[in-house]
């Protein structure tokens, strides 16, 4: 489709601005080139953005089984509540007396999330999951510094971890120690015991992990770290599989981050806004960043932790995301939260069982909210790759699963159907997966050409990454 700049026609315009009633002033800055702005009439603008909307794919358009990202449908009532003027028209510096309801909402949400996770305190300052990871690692670092135990500079991370884990640990000033997973996809206890020592600051772990498995040795894992003097950090990216059923705090974790923009009802993706609150046990609460809402005799006020690591974001985090989470929690209640997790696990196991005779499972055992299939055999035998299957799904209106992750599975596709999909949707998706595999085995060249029906055909992924076109080039700019 054409870009806005391709509509250039100075004879057409759409303006509703009144004539300027103040003296015009020329800016001192001078452009070296002509300022290019498209000039369009209103109907062309409307048609252009409608066409863009038609060419996008989201959870409102169809099945979106993007593993480990939980691209689920989010109730629109939560967006409506977060759009109320009492929430959208406040200012972070206005008098506390005028925002008591907002502070109470934050405190109620903190209490509910601490109950779900087994933590004692929580900050909403972090703006994303990785930001929450960074915050949690600062708490761990502060804990060891306050004990003058400065030799603890290493964070242990399994090789199945989310990619942001080692990056966050490095940014917080730690050295990363990677331990391999066993053939069953879980932590190798012997490797973990060999890795710990007097320099161990902590462990970063996702449970269920990135291959969708709940580690049956989780209590032993966290105890090994505690016995070595370290702390346990829980990556809450996969909490939707266990919330209301098991609590990270009961598993031995001291710090946690959550993805409110994923698990608790804010659309995931599109650049934000996100929210990755960081929770902790009581002995770490004095290190939390920023200020926290607390109830006093005079009402709600802000409390500054005594040994805070300092602010990690302006003011109090992305408040409207917290509002959506609050609405989501109130709507579901404790029983609904538990049922959400149960449905996520049920949907994943149903779909995995339906596909296990057609696709090779990376781990042929009961999964949690997601599962991983491997196209390694097909890649070797007939040059049909995970990329081919993923691209072919686009022609059926299904967003591809995550490709080539986790790295410990070759030719991986990670599938997460989420808790919000119906049996009919899952059955149709299973039929599509099977049909694509049958077509690929009969004629591999068919999937090499996919997708055929999308606005843009298969891209050169390497060139797109190394030579991206990030701006429009005008003819007179070349």
Automatic annotation (TrEMBL):
InterPro entries named in the record: GDC-P_C (IPR049316), GDC-P_N (IPR049315), GDC_P (IPR020581), PyrdxlP-dep_Trfase (IPR015424), PyrdxlP-dep_Trfase_major (IPR015421), PyrdxlP-dep_Trfase_small (IPR015422)
Domain Glycine dehydrogenase C-terminal: 341-440
Catalytic activity: N(6)-[(R)-lipoyl]-L-lysyl-[glycine-cleavage complex H protein] + glycine + H(+) = N(6)-[(R)-S(8)-aminomethyldihydrolipoyl]-L-lysyl-[glycine-cleavage complex H protein] + CO2
Gene Ontology terms, MF aspect: glycine binding; glycine dehydrogenase (decarboxylating) activity; pyridoxal phosphate binding
GO CC terms, sorted: cytosol; glycine cleavage complex
Top enzyme category: oxidoreductase
CC cofactor: pyridoxal 5'-phosphate
Keywords: Oxidoreductase, Pyridoxal phosphate
Protein's job: The glycine cleavage system catalyzes the degradation of glycine. The P protein binds the alpha-amino group of glycine through its pyridoxal phosphate cofactor; CO(2) is released and the remaining methylamine moiety is then transferred to the lipoamide cofactor of the H protein.
NCBIfam families found in the cross-reference section: PRK04366.1
The protein's name in its UniProt record: glycine dehydrogenase (aminomethyl-transferring)
Organism of provenance: Dielma fastidiosa
């Amino acid at each position: 489709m054409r870009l806005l700049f391709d509509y250039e026609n100075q004879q057409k315009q759409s303006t509703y601005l009144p004539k300027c009633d103040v003296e015009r002033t020329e800016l001192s800055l001078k452009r070296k080139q002509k300022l290019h702005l498209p000039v369009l009439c209103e109907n062309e603008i409307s048609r252009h953005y409608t066409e863009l909307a038609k060419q996008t794919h989201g959870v409102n358009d169809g099945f979106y089984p993007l593993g480990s990202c939980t691209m689920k449908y989010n109730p629109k009532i939560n967006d409506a509540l977060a759009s109320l003027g009492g929430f959208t028209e406040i200012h972070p510096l206005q008098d506390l007396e005028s925002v008591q309801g907002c502070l109470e909402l934050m405190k109620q949400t903190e209490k509910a999330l601490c109950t779900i996770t087994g933590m004692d305190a929580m900050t909403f300052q972090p703006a994303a999951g990785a930001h929450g990871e960074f915050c949690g690692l600062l708490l761990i670092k502060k804990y060891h510094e306050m004990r003058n135990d400065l030799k603890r500079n290493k964070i242990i991370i399994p090789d199945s971890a989310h990619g942001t884990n080692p990056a966050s640990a490095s940014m917080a000033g730690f050295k990363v120690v990677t331990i391999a997973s066993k053939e069953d996809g879980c932590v190798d206890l012997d490797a973990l015991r060999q890795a710990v020592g007097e320099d161990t600051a902590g462990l970063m772990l996702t449970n269920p992990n990135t291959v969708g498995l709940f580690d049956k040795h989780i209590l032993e894992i966290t105890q090994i770290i505690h016995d070595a003097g370290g702390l346990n950090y829980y990556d809450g990216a996969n909490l939707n599989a266990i919330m209301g059923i098991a609590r990270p705090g009961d598993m031995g974790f001291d710090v946690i981050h959550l993805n409110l923009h994923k698990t608790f009802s804010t659309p995931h993706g599109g650049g934000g806004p996100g929210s990755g609150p960081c929770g902790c046990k009581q002995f770490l609460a004095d290190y939390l960043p920023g200020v926290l809402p607390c109830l006093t005799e005079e009402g709600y006020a802000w409390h500054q932790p005594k040994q805070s690591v300092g602010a990690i974001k302006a003011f109090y985090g992305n408040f409207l995301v917290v509002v959506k989470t609050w609405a989501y929690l109130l709507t579901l209640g404790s029983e609904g939260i538990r049922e959400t997790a149960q449905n996520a696990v049920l949907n994943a196991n149903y779909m995995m069982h339906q596909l296990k005779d057609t696709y090779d499972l990376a781990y042929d055992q009961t999964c949690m909210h997601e599962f991983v299939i491997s196209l390694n055999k097909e890649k070797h035998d007939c040059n049909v790759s995970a990329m081919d299957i993923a691209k072919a799904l686009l022609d059926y209106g299904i967003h591809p699963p995550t490709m080539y992750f986790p790295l410990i599975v070759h030719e991986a596709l990670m599938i997460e159907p989420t808790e919000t999909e119906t049996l009919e949707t899952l059955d149709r998706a299973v039929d599509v997966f099977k049909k694509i595999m049958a077509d690929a085995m009969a004629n591999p060249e068919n999937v090499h050409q996919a997708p055929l029906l999308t606005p843009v055909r298969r891209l050169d992924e390497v060139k797109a990454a190394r030579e991206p076109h990030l701006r429009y080039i005008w003819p007179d700019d070349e």
